[in-house]
Amino acid sequence: MLIHIYEDPSHGWAKVSKKLLRKLSIEDKISPFSYEQGAFAYLEEDCDLGVLIHALNHENIGYKFKTHHTNNESRIRRFDHYGKRGLL
């Protein structure tokens, strides 16, 4: 599984499908410090990405990271905070 990491000068987020979060039964463990847009969640790097990694390891699902960096403020910061819209 390839996990895309998006970084700006001060923070980073992992883009994953909300369907994957439901499959791993962790959708309710993601904090509002993460973001969402459409079918995807953008997990903040400090805590929520760790929740995902722990769940993937528990299920023996392999993963790799691909990092994307911008020197500008990421547009992810303008997405809705995770869980703000109610149920996924």
How does the major sheet shape up?
6 strands, mixed
Structural class: alpha+beta
Order of helices and strands: EEHEEHEE
Distance between the termini: 22 Å
The radius of gyration over CA amounts to 12 Å
Oligomer: single chain
Give the number of DSSP strands.
6
Counting structural domains, the number is 1
* Share of β-strand residues: 25-35%
Give the overall form: globular
Helix content: 10-25%
The spatial strand order of the largest sheet comes to 5-1-2-4-3-6
Number of helices: 2
Low-confidence sequence ranges: none
Average the pLDDT over all residues and give the rounded result: 95
Summary keywords:
single chain, 88 residues, alpha+beta, 6 strands
Structure explained in plain terms:
The chain is an alpha+beta fold and 88 residues long. The chain has one domain (2-81). Helices cover 19% and strands 32% of the residues. It has two helices and six strands. The chain has helices at residues 18-23, 48-58, and strands at 2-7, 12-17, 35-37, 40-44, 64-69, 80-81. A six-stranded mixed beta sheet has the order 5-1-2-4-3-6. Strand 3 (35-37) and strand 4 form a beta hairpin. The longest helix is centred in the middle third of the chain and has 11 residues, at 48-58. It starts with a strand and ends in a 7-residue tail after the last strand. The model has no long low-confidence stretch (mean pLDDT 95).
Task: Please render the helix and strand layout as text.
Layout: E1 2-7, E2 12-17, H1 18-23, E3 35-37, E4 40-44, H2 48-58, E5 64-69, E6 80-81
Parallel strand pairs: 1-5
Antiparallel strand pairs: 1-2, 2-4, 3-4, 3-6
